[in-house]
Amino acid sequence: MSQSNGQGPTESHNSLGIAGGIAKTFIHSPLTPLLLIACLALGIMGLLSTPRQEDPQISVPMIDVFFQFPGASPQQVASLAADPLERMISEIPGIKHVYSASQRGGGMVTAQFEVGEDHNQSLVKLYDKLMSNMDKIPPGVSQPLVKPKSVDDVPMVALTLWSEELDDASLRSIALEVVQRLKQVKNTSQSFVVGGRSSQMRVEIDPARLRNFGISIDQLANTISSANERKKVGSAETSTNEITVYSGQFLRTASDVERLIVGIQGGRPIYVRDVATVTDGSSDATSVVQYASGPNAEEGEPKTAGAPAVTIAIAKKKGSNGVSVANDVLAQVETLKGRLIPDNVHVSVTRNYGKTANDKVNELISEMIGATSVVTLLIFLFLGLRPTIVVVVVIPIIILLTIFSAWILGFTVDRVSLFALIFSIGILVDDATVVVENIYRRWLEKGGIDTPTTVDAVREVGNPTILATLTIIAALLPMGFVSGMMGPYMRPIPVLGSVAMAFSLFAAFIFTPWLAIRIRPSLDKLRRMEKSEHRMSERLDGFYRGLLGPLLDSPAKARTFRLVIWGVMLAVCFMFYTTQVAVKMLPLDNKPEFNVVVNMPEGTALPVTTNIIQQLTEEVLKIPEVTAVQSYTGTASPFNFNGLVRHYYLRDKPWEGDIQVQLPDKDERERSSHQIAVDARERLTPLAAKLGARVQVVEMPPGPPVLQTMVAEVYGPDAETRRQVARELTKIFEKSEKVVDVDNLMQDEHFTWTFVVNQQKAERAGITNSDINRQLAMVMGGYTLGDAKLEHELEPRMLIIQAPLSVRSNMNSLGEIPIRTANNTLVPLSALGSFQKVPVEPIIYQKDLRPVEFVTGEVAGRLGAPIYGMIEISKLLENYKTPDGVELSGTLVAPPSDSFKSGFEWTGEWTVTYETFRDMGIA
Q1: Is CB count within 10 Å lower at the N or C end of the chain?
Q2: What is the pLDDT averaged over residues 28-44?
Q3: Other Cβ atoms within 10 Å of 878 Cβ, number
Q4: Would you say the CATH fold of 706-750+841-923 matches that of 199-231+244-282+751-839?
Q5: Phi and psi for 420 in degrees, rounded to 5?
Q6: Which residue, 609, 607, 611, is CA-closest to 598?
Q7: Any alpha helices (H) in 477-522, and if so which ranges?
Q8: Are 246 and 181 in contact (CB under 8 A)?
Q9: What is the pTM of this model?
Q10: Could you tell me if 357 and 173 are in contact, meaning their C-beta atoms sit under 8 angstroms apart?
Q11: How far apart are the C-alpha atoms of 680 and 669, rounded to whole Å?
């Protein structure tokens, strides 16, 4: 067989086109095998270097700005502090929404930037705006505290330390030491400990003893504060040296505080221990964290029905590989067991996103290999062994190069990027297959195998192949124009799909001819393949002629066929209306965890909430698939991406809590996590209602998170009308059979105690409001005198002054607190005013400078898309009129335009759905 390199009339360089020119250049070039090896090496490097994640990294800069406005009412906070901040922040380029929450004494403004905005640049822009407008802060408002949050702050690993022998304070001390060691692991980022009482030195005053000894709280506090000071006072020089001089000392132990002299009575010193009890121990409990083993707990692991616990949460640095970081952290923990972590403290891995990401990626890689195998088998059946080898060599090169491109472009190896590759495999082989088939056809036509024929065969199909590839890329591009949170989530599909198609095109022109001419079948084999192909073509021809011939020959049959097609299409479309086919933005995922968010009525005490959550936890533990449960009361569990968007990390009130539920891997259970979550909701909802609690079963969404699946943002002409509409809309949500986990962000009515100063009596005694406020703060435990300076402490041991709980919880006892007057006598607090019980004013929420209330719900059942719940709610609203006489209906794409009438906007998952289909439709 001739392999002449000569050029025939059809092979002149100018007529070869792009495809022929590339094939001619590389078909016998010694660089081609080197280029093949280089592509494989780059691809393998990309596969090893590209970070593995379960989901794409989405840049959603969300920055919280906190401020204090002591004593101000919610309306004052909103109008004097929150509104100016909102106006400033709304002027920043790249801002999408500005939210605020104003309550008595302070508030928070959240700046939500457009998806895709650079996090660091957004933070700089916000700081610049705030710092350049500090002169506009009203008197009494603190300097804003800026706390940025991003997806990189979400902990990758959570380790729960629990023990049936140690209390939560001891566990916290151990956890702080463990965190210090784990921070030594490369690429770890923000880390924190949830739960456990901090070390604290308390000075518990006795009002009666203070009164008997003639000592005021101020006098006691000043004595302790002034004794806890050491500083440099100067330096001295000798003839040869300079010596630094220090003065004072720090308080280190409880006995140091007890020995301080606070006054003199009858020539006898009065010590702190005479008027107060000093204890060096743990702070009062403000949160409770517990761990319990489930019925499906792993064999051989320690188990407990309930034990005190603390949780360590560790995030990774941006751009690092979550799998390797998680593995390194867990390896470091193993080295600490039996050394830093005592044998009676157990460590349970309650979150490992590195493992779940690796499992998901490995699963998708297996599916990709399976898809490649199927395509290879089909090529083998129809084209034979040698062309199959050609295609099998080309496909891995394309896939590996695409993964390398993902690394260069800043993408991660995740389920969406791998879906893009799996989606592309079916069409990646087209270019190589077309080129190989045409090369074989031309060899058969000529009756011989040579280079000019091979190059011309590539040229012949080059332009159509390029056009077909560009057409596929054009079909993928609309996904790249989706805005909102779904945009960057879907972006790997058009980007990596297009990159894969481009690589497949060049691989078809470079490597396919090079491989085809070297791994070539004989002409006899090609003729047998041709005959086999003709036999297959004849069968297909007979089938299609038998099917289409009558339709082409008979106009009546053709019309009937068209009517049938139209009828089937209309019937299929009608199935959406009848809900025989359900629609949903994304299918539900199958995760190894879910959360149960628990809300008690505002004002509920911590022990009551803890008891309720314990009862709910016991019900969860009846679910057979549960491996472990952690309950958090008065604090939030380590947040995930969903919790980041929903601000779950701010849940720190005594009446708030959540239950973190762990499940085995999906291969180890029959039911999906969604089915188990539905089971949990059916068990917990009636129990919670009986106990006076509200629960929400929160699953990790398959796509970008939102505030809730269904969200109604309620607007109105005034606060009372707006809140009344929100309350009634909440009741309508509860009537719906499709909507569950109904809630709103309004507070239940609860009360607070306020000490009202009798201004005349206080002025006669020479006592100011600030004197009373300060001394009451000391009694109630909200006053810090400093900290005890100990060695090797990982968090400060605060020095707190307060009254015992029996005094703090009794308003009559508080009235006996002695206050020193201007003439150096003591009077009881009750002589200067009285305690009054007043209702707590509601929080004022605003979105984009408009007051708003939020009503939320989850759509349950087979019809899980928000549109079904929205339709049902719209039907239930048909006969409803608001207090201001408006027939209420929800807008779909923007807030109601009239601010002086009641109305609401549908947001939540609906907004993501609308933006996605709108942008894809436009594109």
Answers
A1: N
A2: 91
A3: 9
A4: no
A5: -60, -40
A6: 609
A7: 486-490, 492-518
A8: no
A9: 0.87
A10: no
A11: 16
Tokens 């299609």 correspond to: 544
| Cβ contacts of 546 within 8 Å, gap of 6 or more | none
Helix-strand-coil split of the chain, %, nearest 5: 50, 20, 30
**DSSP three-state, residue 854:** strand
Confidence of residue 923 (pLDDT cuts 50, 70, 90): low
Distance CA 220, CA 272 (A): 7
How many Cα atoms sit within 13 Å of 96 on the Cβ side? 14
Domain 706-750+841-923 class? Answer: alpha beta
Q: How many Cα atoms within 13 Å fall on the side-chain side of residue 555?
A: 0
Determine how many CB atoms are found less than 10 A away from the CB of residue 366: 10
Dump the DSSP string for 515-544: HHHHS---HHHHHHHHHHHHHHHHHHHHHH
Residue 66: the pLDDT is 96
Distance CA 782, CA 804 (A): 13
Give the torsion sign (CA, 220, 223, 226, 228). Answer: negative
**Residue from 83, 57, 87, 58 nearest 72 by CA:** 83
Q: Taking a C-beta distance cutoff of 8 angstroms, is the pair 188, 178 a contact?
A: no
Closest CA to 92 of 136, 121, 131, 126: 126
CA distance 638 to 491: 28
Cα 802 to Cα 294: distance, rounded to the nearest angstrom: 41
Closest C-alpha to 658, from 590, 612, 710: 612
pLDDT above 70: percentage of residues in the chain: 98
With tokens 């719906």, the residue in question is 736
The three-state secondary structure class of 270 is: strand
Helices within 702-810 (DSSP H only)? 719-735, 759-764, 769-780, 805-808
pLDDT at 521: 78
Phi and psi for 48 in degrees, rounded to 5? Answer: -80, -30
CB 211 within 8 A of CB 202: no
CB 710, CB 743: distance < 8 Å: no
What's the confidence (pLDDT) of residue 189? 92
Spatial distance between the Cα atoms of 539 and 533, rounded to a whole number of angstroms: 10
Q: Which residue type sits at 324?
A: S
Torsion of CA 607, 611, 613, 615, to 10 degrees: 180
Picking from 491, 480, 483, the residue whose alpha carbon sits closest to that of residue 915 is 483
Distance CA 708, CA 666 (A): 25
- The ranges assigned to domains in the chain are 151-198+285-317+587-698, 199-231+244-282+751-839, 554-582, 706-750+841-923
Contact 575/587 with Cβ under 8 angstroms?
A: no
CATH topology assigned to domain 199-231+244-282+751-839? 3.30.2090
The conformation of residue 841, written as its DSSP 8-state character, comes to: P
Q: Tens digits of per-residue pLDDT, 760-770?
A: 999 999 999 98
Q: What is the CATH number of domain 151-198+285-317+587-698?
A: 3.30.70.1430
Cβ neighbours of 543 (radius 10 Å): 10
Q: What are the start-end ranges of the E strands in 294-426?
A: 307-316, 346-352
How many residues are present in the chain?
923
Instruction: Specify the residue for token string 């020995």.
Output: 259
pLDDT tens string 503-543:
989 888 998 899 888 888 777 777 877 787 778 778 888 88
Closest to 372 measured CA to CA, from 417, 424, 413, 438:
424
Question: In Å, how far from its chain's centre is CA 887?
Answer: 37
Q: Are 736 and 871 in contact (CB under 8 A)?
A: no
Q: What DSSP designation does 660 have?
A: E
3-state secondary structure of 591: coil
What is the gyration radius of the CA atoms in the chain, in angstroms? 36
Sign, Cα dihedral of 224, 230, 234, 238: positive
CA distance 776 to 71: 14
d(CA 39, CA 219): 78
